[in-house]
Amino acid sequence: MMNDSPLDSLTERQRQLLDLVNRQVSRSKEIAKETGLAPGSIDTLLQNAAKTLGVRDRKSAARRYAELVDKSQNSSQLRPQRFETEENQALSESAAAPKSALGKILKFFRGPPLGGSSQHLRWDQIALQVLRVAAIGMVSIWALVLLVLGFFRTFGGN
C-alpha cells in the first residue's frame, strides 16, 4: 500500500519526538530525560524523520510536521500523546533511583559521561565532573596506600 503523505511514513515515536522539538525541547539530552531513550537513538530517529519529511535538520522537520498535521483533516488523531503519564513517570523515577546506598556510591563514582565532540555540558556540569574524577582519584590513591601499608604490616619482617 502506498503512503499518500509523509505523515503516514513516520512512526509514532518519531511523531512524539517531533512534537517535543516543536515545544522547544530540541536537545537530545533534554528529550532523553522526557522519553527515557538514549540521546543517540533520539538523533537517529529525528534524522530519519527529517529525511522522510524531505528536510535537513530536526527543527525544520518539526516545522514541516506541524504544517502537515495542521493541513490534515484528522489532525487530532495524529497529534502525539505526551510521555508523562503518571504511571510512566513513576516507573521512570523508580528505575532511575538507585536501590541502595551502594547503588548511590557506584552512581557517584562511575565517572564523567562520554560523548565526544557532541557532548554539550554547562560549566557547572563540567565542574561537577572534574570534582567527581578528582574524588575517584583520591579514593583510589588512599586505597592503594592502605593496601600497601596493610601488606607491610602483615608480611613485614618486624
Describe the structure.
The chain has helices spanning 6-9, 12-22, 28-35, 39-53, 58-71, 75-78, 86-96, 101-108, 123-155. The longest helix is centred in the last third of the chain and has 33 residues, at 123-155. The protein is 68% helix and 0% strand. It has 158 residues and is mainly alpha-helical. It folds into two domains: 6-86, Arc Repressor Mutant, subunit A (Orthogonal Bundle), CATH 1.10.10; 99-155. It is rod-shaped. α2 (12-22) crosses α4 (39-53). The N and C termini lie far apart (86 Å).
- For the record, the count of structural domains works out to 2
SSE-based structural type = mainly alpha
- Share of helix, binned: 55-70%
Radius of gyration, whole Å: 24 Å
Task: List the keywords.
rod-shaped, mainly alpha, Arc Repressor Mutant, subunit A, 68% helix, 158 residues, single chain
List strands and helices in order, with pairings.
Elements: H1 6-9, H2 12-22, H3 28-35, H4 39-53, H5 58-71, H6 75-78, H7 86-96, H8 101-108, H9 123-155
Helix pairs in contact: 2-4, 2-5, 3-4, 4-5
The gist of it:
The chain is mostly helical. The chain is built from nine helices and no strands.
